[in-house]
Design a protein that fits this description.
Elements lengths: L15 H7 L6 E4 L1 E2 L7 E3 L13 E4 L8 H9 L1 H10 L1 E3 L2 E3 L2 H5 L8 H40 L14 H4 L18 E5 L2 E6 L12
Antiparallel strand pairs: 1-3, 1-4, 2-6, 5-6, 7-8
Helix pairs in contact: 2-5
């Protein structure tokens, strides 16, 4: 959600040089180097919650070098759909793992409105992220409630405690696997295309005019 969790911080024995090289200063922006494509480039600003803290080398650190940039704005920008789109285009992906390098990060194009406007934008995006996170928590709770209501009404399907008649899926619907739309076929606009990780882009044609169950 754009914040840092300090609930499970580890400690090490480090030399003076190692501490200086990786030491965090208030205002530093930390960015993920790789992992789940959906979380690629996620960032959060370090506010100095611990006196001496260092980061490991699979985390990128961006330190303010200009009075014309608000670091919270930069964090929101990088974590926004604008930033995500850039990093996904730049990243190397293998078996669902995406990664970027320092050169790609340095070339990230940053729109620079006036400083006050940056702060206003960052405040709006922070509020949106807060609402999104809380909505996700509520959605998770409702999903758990739905599972509970299903089991209380129908029992566990594999036990079939209510002795319902059982049918194979193919007997009651028509499963079909549609041709894959490759990433280079995706477009900026059009009909939404869903993959295993959700919405992945848009295409000029559609194949489901009616509500459809996706598995």
């Amino acid at each position: 959600d754009g914040s840092l969790s300090l609930s499970n911080v580890k400690t090490i024995n480090a030399t003076h040089d190692e501490i200086n090289r990786y030491r965090l200063l208030p205002g530093d922006l930390l960015l993920t180097e790789g992992g789940d494509p959906d979380k690629l480039g996620r960032g959060a600003v370090w506010n100095g919650e611990i006196d001496v803290c260092i980061h490991q080398n699979h985390i990128f650190r961006a330190r303010k070098a200009s009075e014309h940039i608000d670091m919270q704005y930069l964090a929101c920008l990088i974590s926004s759909p604008y930033g995500k789109k850039y990093f996904l285009r730049q990243s190397k992906q293998t078996t669902g793992i995406a990664s970027i390098n320092m050169g790609q990060l340095k070339r990230f194009p940053v729109p620079l409105p006036p400083l006050e406007e940056q702060r206003r934008i960052a405040a709006i995006l922070d509020k949106a992220e807060y609402l999104k996170t809380n909505a996700a928590k509520r959605s998770s709770t409702l999903e758990a409630l739905g599972r509970s209501l299903f089991v209380s009404s129908f029992g566990l399907p594999y036990k079939n405690e209510n002795q319902f008649p059982m049918r194979k899926l193919f007997d009651i619907c028509n499963p079909k696997q549609w041709p894959t739309i490759s990433s280079n076929q995706l477009q900026e606009e059009g009909y939404p295309v869903f993959g295993a990780n959700g919405l992945i882009g848009y295409y000029e044609k559609f194949n489901h005019p009616e509500p459809t169950v996706l598995v």
